[in-house]
Amino acid sequence: MRVLSVASEVYPLVKTGGLADVAGALPAALAAYGVDMQVLLPGYKQVMAKLPNPVRMLEIPELFGTSASVLACRIDGVQYLVLDAPELYDRDGGPYTDAYGADHPDNWRRFAALSRAAAIIAEKGIERWIPDIVHAHDWQAGLVPVYMRHGAAAATPTVMTVHNLAFQGQFGADIFAWLGLPQSEFGMDGIEYYGDVSFLKGGLQAASAITTVSPTYAQEIRTPAFGMGLDGLINARADVLHGIVNGIDTEIWDPSTDPLIEGHFTLSRLKKRQVNRTALANKFGFADTDGPVFTVVSRLTWQKGIDVLAEVADDIVAMGGKLAVLGAGDPALEDALKDAASRHPGKIGLALGYDEHLSHVMQAGGDVILVPSRFEPCGLTQLYGLRYGNVPLVARTGGLADTVIDANEAAIAARVATGFQFSPVSADALREALRRAVRAFADPRIWVRLQNQGMKADVSWDRSALRYTGLYADLLAPKREPS
Ligand SMILES: Nc1ncnc2c1ncn2[C@@H]1O[C@H](COP(=O)(O)OP(=O)(O)O[C@H]2O[C@H](CO)[C@@H](O)[C@H](O)[C@H]2O)[C@@H](O)[C@H]1O
Are 378 and 275 in the same domain? Predict the structure, then answer.
């Protein structure tokens, strides 16, 4: 089965968040089930610089006012297709923003081009490789199913995966004329959204199947509270909606071999974890290694509940804990955390910025990974925490609710608890959960049990890869007429 996956970021070539991890891990995970997945992504400056021996496979003479080509490149067994269009992608800054952090004004054109290129590949193939299915991720690939339904590959099934419904790719109606779509698309069943254009809405309407990254989030987005204005549409398409929880790449995230951490450890050699704790304490300038070290690796935003975290920072210290935060985002939240760190030198440490290496160090050396998100489609840092003995303390929402088993008394006694959940996302509820964690940490028997159970949890892609494979197979199965 041949599947073309289309994403705006893919680890290890370019990453700003969880989408890259998932788009990067899927090809290998699905290969185990006989899926031949190739991944199309934009040829940003940082991507082009990383390609070993790219081969030019397909010329696209006219793509949104510029010429483009598709390069193929194999890295660690994965076949990447890179859309080389310098006018669109050869720029300083990140995948979506310029060097000053502002969105590129022509992002609609940059990602419409990615989607159009995917549709062209679906029609023409790359050499003799023609996808049986096209799998689009998030709004940046939202127009893939839309372009496909108006072209020669209209019969090829498409899957639209929502990694975060908060980002919809909404642009003014004036861009519609430039998209090269029939006028009928500017309507209820197409990409029109309250008089604007929405790339994600288009994808959700046109795709053969919709998936999101956990079963709980799949239910939540059917409600006005989580549906971000699209709950009506999602409910109307509930028969093709699936919640498939993310896994993690257990080779990259393996505490027994991880080259980015100080000391390797396993379930049976948990004591060896200690050197990582010390390394973390040194990195964040902690005065000592007493008490639990709470860690946060996150975009610093309202979605992630970082305002609530800042509210309880003093309490963490008062409870005898330490706090280490790695992240970047909203300047007001960065300031609130900077203030907390300056109030508590040696106890609260802040690393502002994006640092993949440090994120591994934190998972290996922390005691608790905090994820106080207001909504969380799946969440990956709690999965890395489980695997690294960094016990998750999470808000009871979305994929966090699906992947962490709360340490209530019954779950502790039954030896199934893996972390702590709290609800609602408020300072009071978070404080209460922190207290529970501090109490559990004080009892080494309970704590080691939590770490053990977490490290034993299956966070691999195995089960979910099987579910994606099943979904693809269903989409390809000949439709039976109702009898
Ligand atoms: N400052 C920093 N330095 C280094 N690494 C950092 C970092 N900030 C974040 N990261 C890393 O970026 C990734 C973030 O992934 P998440 O799943 O937690 O959230 P994100 O909102 O990006 O993803 C969206 O897509 C994913 C994938 O489907 C869903 O799990 C999630 O719920 C959804 O919001 C993790 O690998 C984390 O370690």
Answer: yes
